[in-house]
Amino acid sequence: MEEEKVELRELERSSEDKVKKEAKPPNRFERIIQPCIAELVGTMFFVFIGCVSVIENVEAAGRLQPALVHGLAVAVMVACMAEISGSHFNPPFTLAIFLCGGMQFAMVIPYLISQLVGGVLGAAMSKIMTSKENYINATGAAFTILQSEEQVPGAIFAEIAMTCLVTMVVLLGAVNGKSKSPMVPFLVGCTVIVNILAGGDVSGTCLNPARALGPALLAGYWDYHWVYWVGPISGGLIAAALVRLLLGDEKIRVIMK
């Protein structure tokens, strides 16, 4: 009987210790530094894989191969790092998530800097890995599809609409309480694939300024580069507005509660 009481006390003590450990708030490294590192590393490998897929297959790839590579890379990185940083890897995502109450303002600028630096590092990795001939032939996987002013309006609209779509998937799948889903890595990856298949020949389907900046900087190609900032950021803001005003649950929605 006495032995049973001792065992019971040990079990209770063990449970209390476990609860205390679980209730312990994350330290400064896990709250601030680690998420930024995750954003940098995740964006770096996403841009690296995406650029290599274009550089090494520029003549025969078509749209299917880059679509699958970018989409699967996003799905894998989101699944791996979601619990560390939220797996944004894209400035419009970060802005939209903040506007929908999914992160603190203090982390917005560090996230954006981490993503842009990661994009440059990923582009540099692709340059190191690929042959000089292929790299030059593909212009470092920078977006070169726009060759005249006549193409710009369609490309801007494409970047706005497609970024809006993928950002809504992120917000509804990961931020909005009513529609949160553990399938969000798969959903985001599939949306990227669908967007590239649909709009690759119109704008190149960047949807991410960090993906555009690195290759442009490394290859020195800046023609119509602004399109890949204005379009995606505008699309992300529109998605945030739709969720805030119409699609979000009562906690997120600011009208018609």
TrEMBL record:
<feature type="transmembrane region" description="Helical">
    <location>
        <begin position="93"/>
        <end position="113"/>
    </location>
</feature>
<keyword id="KW-0472">Membrane</keyword>
<keyword id="KW-0813">Transport</keyword>
<dbReference type="InterPro" id="IPR000425">
    <property type="entry name" value="MIP"/>
</dbReference>
<feature type="region of interest" description="Disordered">
    <location>
        <begin position="1"/>
        <end position="22"/>
    </location>
</feature>
<feature type="transmembrane region" description="Helical">
    <location>
        <begin position="182"/>
        <end position="200"/>
    </location>
</feature>
<dbReference type="InterPro" id="IPR023271">
    <property type="entry name" value="Aquaporin-like"/>
</dbReference>
<protein>
    <recommendedName>
        <fullName>Aquaporin 8</fullName>
    </recommendedName>
</protein>
<keyword id="KW-1133">Transmembrane helix</keyword>
<keyword id="KW-0812">Transmembrane</keyword>
<dbReference type="Pfam" id="PF00230">
    <property type="entry name" value="MIP"/>
</dbReference>
<dbReference type="InterPro" id="IPR034294">
    <property type="entry name" value="Aquaporin_transptr"/>
</dbReference>
<feature type="transmembrane region" description="Helical">
    <location>
        <begin position="226"/>
        <end position="247"/>
    </location>
</feature>
<dbReference type="InterPro" id="IPR023277">
    <property type="entry name" value="Aquaporin_8"/>
</dbReference>
<feature type="transmembrane region" description="Helical">
    <location>
        <begin position="155"/>
        <end position="175"/>
    </location>
</feature>
<feature type="transmembrane region" description="Helical">
    <location>
        <begin position="36"/>
        <end position="55"/>
    </location>
</feature>
<comment type="similarity">
    <text>Belongs to the MIP/aquaporin (TC 1.A.8) family.</text>
</comment>
<feature type="transmembrane region" description="Helical">
    <location>
        <begin position="67"/>
        <end position="86"/>
    </location>
</feature>
<dbReference type="GO" id="GO:0015250">
    <property type="term" value="F:water channel activity"/>
</dbReference>
<dbReference type="GO" id="GO:0005886">
    <property type="term" value="C:plasma membrane"/>
</dbReference>
